[in-house]
What we know:
It is built from 3 helices and no strands. The protein has helices spanning 6-32, 37-53, 57-85. The longest helix is centred in the C-terminal third of the chain and has 29 residues, at 57-85. It starts with 5 loop residues before the first helix and ends in a 20-residue tail after the last helix.
Amino acid sequence: MTLSLTGIIIAAATFLIIGIFHPVVVKTEYYFGTRAWWVFLVAGLGACAAALFITNVILSSVAGVVGASCLWSVSELFTQKKRVEKGWFPMNPRRKNEYKPADKG
């Protein structure tokens, strides 16, 4: 019997990539605010484009997952700003003027 580890490798890589992107988005919003959204967009489009040309299934899948995670991070960056405004995450005191106060209702 021969086992194929391809699916497990892709699943593990996906799990790690998604796990890594959460703190990356949190730290990016803290230090740079939402101004860095375009970096995630360009990186995401580049990684997705690269996935189209990579012939190795595992590497192509990983590039696609990185690309999708980058593209999703564009939205998450703006959502993270709202979480900070609600007080769920710490606000960078150097950028206080970029946040709206949370509604008290």
